[in-house]
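Sequence only, no structure available. Ideas?
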Amino acid sequence: MLEVQHLSVNYRQTSVLEDIHLVVHPGELVGLIGPNGAGKSTLIQSILGLVPAHQGQVLLDGQPLRRCQHRIAYVPQRSHIDWDYPITAWNVVMMAQTRAAGWFRRPNRDARRTVWAALERVEMLELRHRQIRELSGGQQQRVFLARALAQQADFFFLDEPFTGIDKKTEAVMLRTFTELQAQNKALLVCSHEWGDALRRYDRLLLLNRTLLADDVPDTVMTLENMQRAYSQTPSANGIDRLSEFLVC
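Reply:
I predicted one. Tokens follow.
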């Protein structure tokens, strides 16, 4: 079980996240939603220790998360990755095994098998020797999902994985999520999705600096919660998106 206790983050003396408490259980697919600038990416990064917290702690099965980093896999936003870096899809995924074994050790047969299986699982094996910059956005996303799979983690954090991808990649990712859940893995997905797509999640976390709602999708996506998320005066865009959800 992953537990976030009273997590707060400040940036230049401005509060970005306030007193966040949440729990993610093994086998859950949890969606993290909220308006732009709500702190969704910051929350994921602070849980992972990539952004310093002002207060609070993150526990994994009762232990500080920093002691259990090998059990965590992270797929960042595509906009945070240098796609011009000269590296093949195979070597991107192999980085997961290299990190575990040590940077100066040659990958062994088991490591190569793990990378092969991860690429095959996301249907990118045939393009394993392709430079990452030569791949489409969806293919790039599948490679980074394969890298997370190759870590053989228990908890997966994905920041906007469905942004700018094709239908095939979406289908591959959803199938992989279902497989991971069946293996009792947990997934926390930062999402900008709306409409019926939100019903794919077991639970939704609605965030705007604080955690406004934490429940099943139909309970979270109400007009009252949307008004709270959009500071009591939701934008027309926010209302339109809520309407999309309600009519699905």
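The two ends are 32 Å apart (CA to CA).
Hope that gets you unstuck.
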